[in-house]
Specification:
The protein has about 250 residues and is of the alpha+beta class. About 20% of the residues lie in helices and about 35% in strands. The strands form two sheets. It has a six-stranded mixed beta sheet with strand order 3-4-5-6-7-8. It has a five-stranded antiparallel beta sheet with strand order 1-2-9-10-11, with no helix packed on it. Helix 1 runs antiparallel to helix 2. The radius of gyration is 18 Å and the shape is globular. The N terminus is likely disordered.
Length: about 250
Amino acid sequence: MPLLLHASRRLFSTSRTASVRRKPIADIVSPPALTIEKSGLPQPRPVTPLPSSSHHTSLESFLAYAQDAKLSTSSTTYVGTYYEYLCALSLRRLGFDLTRTGGRADAGIDLLGSWQLPDDSRPLRCLAQCKNLKAKAGPNLVRELEGAFAGAPAGWRGEDVVGVLCAGREATKGVREAIRNARRGLVWCQIEDMGAGVGRVRQMLWNQRVGALGAEGVSVGIRHTLVAGEVEGRNSYDEVVLMWKGEVWEPS
């Protein structure tokens, strides 16, 4: 039985001062998936949802607002909102276009939007939860994400909507098994806050259902990136990249 996504070959990028090592990725096996028919015709991009706040719509504008409003950086509101924006920004490099919708009546959904995959066939509609936990992640997070589908707004309902779970910790064995057994298409992303509004995706995996929806043939690599100056005392870091036909893929 195939296991989870992980990585092992080295590539080199000439467009950046970076190298890529690719861990071969194995799909998580899910229960028998429904057959998904594709028309082959270009699909319209989902309508971008409205932001949940009139004061800020991005990480940059939130940081400015927080400074003006003198928000405590240790408050639950600040920490949660900051991480939600950080996740949306970090995932943009992997083809996600996500809008923060989290708030008091968010039905457990922090981000809404779409994921454009390398084959350009159609963007997948996505809803996401962001969990910047210090403790080890457990399978209860996966069950919570599955429950959030029930509160999805119009336009983000149906069997072809993908759930994305963002967390600051690596997926445990229990999390992997829960994703594997889910009947929904689920994606796990470990997103680390590197400080100064910089985030990196350290781990990404998904189940077979996501492959059936359009991610078949896409794999995950790890790129070693050198940065100008230092970020949190480091002048280099590793981050996830998507691989397509043996090459690093980045959204246009």
